[in-house]
Amino acid sequence: MKLAQRVDNLNKKSRDIIGGSLWLAPSLLGVAAFYIIPFFIVMYYAFIDNPIRGNFVFLDNFIALFQNRAFIQASTNTFTFAITAVPLAVVLSLLIALMLEARIPLRSQFRTFFLSPLMVPVASVVLIWQVLFHPNGAVNELIMLFGATGVDWMLSDHNQLVVVILFLWKNLGFNMILFMAALSNIPREILETADVEGAGPIRKLFYIKMRYLSPTLLFVTIFSLINSFKVFREVYLLTGDYPYEGLYMLQHFMNNVFRFLDYQRLAAAAIVMTIAMVLIIAILFIAEHRFGKDVEE
Amino acid sequence: MYKRRYFGRTGLFILAAVFAVIFLLPTVLTISNSFMTQSEIEANYGMIFESTRPGVGTYVADSVNLKFIPDKVSFDQYITVLFRSPEYLFKFWNSVILVIPIVFLQVGIASFAAYSFTRYKSKFKNIVFFFYIVLMLMPYQVTIVPNYIVAAELGLLGSRWAVIFPGAFAPFSVFLLTKFMRRIPSVLIEAAKLDGASEWHIFTKVCIPQCRSALYSIAILVFIDYWNMVELPIILLADADSQPLSVYLSTINTGEVGVAFAVAVIYMIPPLLLFLHGEEALVEGITHAGSVKG
Q1: Domains and CATH numbers, chain B
Q2: Smallest CA–CA separation between B169 and chain A, in Å?
Q3: What domains can be seen in chain A, in order of their start residue?
Q4: Chain A: residue nearest B106 by CA?
Q5: pLDDT score recorded for residue B248
Q6: Residues A211-222: pLDDT tens digits?
Q7: Cβ of A136 and B59 within 8 Å?
């Protein structure tokens, strides 16, 4: 009896494994073919001198990479952009969500307006960006109205700012939706109790809402960070292959290496970036695990 | 929120309105400028497009007039784009034949995978799922190298399949759809099972109908992401003729400035239509993407 049951369980288990694998197969095979297996080839390329000779050179490719001025420049720029844009993207979208949470008129229309840039292809608005931030463009005219001198936006150190604005314009809506959902999940009773006990809006924000928002906060940070690494798209559409120094991103570096098909450098760069990304993701996940805990139901 | 005390709701409303204007301005300006005549555009912005690129930075224009309302509403640009210069429509078509297969393949493949992650659990599955999340978070500058190597190996470089395949297997949809499927009440599935339904039957008759709005919202998110794509095509499709319009639009030069706005508007029509139709589904989709647990 017991044995029969066990055999039955085992059968069910193996059936589950086979069945489950069949459903997963199309996706997993594709991911293996287009991402995982070639990634091992990338790893191999990273440690050899060239694909034809195939001599093992240990860390030479990595050392060469870190001595490459363009790579250092691109990493610095990508990093600088992330630490400027991501906090802004998180804080501003939270403020917008809080603003819409206060029952102002036309709330759902505002939500639509703020979300709409998500749907507009960047390629379609870069023209307007170029018009706005031209040395003789509208933004400079506005600045000069207030007595300041105009700036050559795209060809000076201010060009990161132009891209930050484009990035925020595009991404705030997405983050806002996430925060709005999280805000609406805060139990009303707690906020009402706080009202009765005379807590002001600031207190309520920092002592109650922020605690409930912390998982979302981290998720939004992760997503914004990931998006900030994709900002090459905006830069490329605004300025093309060879932007001014401050906007030379890691993807630009990769594109230029692709042009010469320098497999060793490509592979080493891909490995270094993978390690950096895995570290960043791990840190964020651990942080999420730590701080997300106390509000889980 | 301090402001609320001083200004109350009116203050917040005004603030929201200011934000709304900023958010809508670029889109509205693009649309309104598309109804100007080509000569009006050239007169207003003619010099811009050369000078934004370093090295060519000689500014000849003494002023750039940003205009909201055309002097005379005209369909001049649209007529040129639609009837006189077929290259834009070709590029638009390139976008369509790249993006549509990616959307259908990615969502289709993901629905099987998500079903697997939802219905059959094992340690191996958890590891695979975690791996999918990590892969999803990888930026293009990392994934493009393996993508390129496979495409070169299979002789796909330059063909649109070099872009479609990596897109079709990208794990974003799998991640999101799994989150949705895990919310389907297990009672429904158990009931179907008791009635003797096969797995295929449960999948097609229980799971998919339950996920209809999820599938729609994921399809929208995938569509807008790839409609906007730049990284994959510029590396995997070296040929300028096969580039999608998202890439081609940025290479528009001074001679074509007169029609650029109309092309830009035509390019934003499909995602905007999807947005108007599916906004609720989209919002729901984003909300679920952010519900961290599960």
Answers
A1: 3-80 (no CATH), 82-290 (1.10.3720.10)
A2: 6
A3: 67-295 (1.10.3720.10)
A4: A27
A5: 84
A6: 788 888 888 888
A7: yes
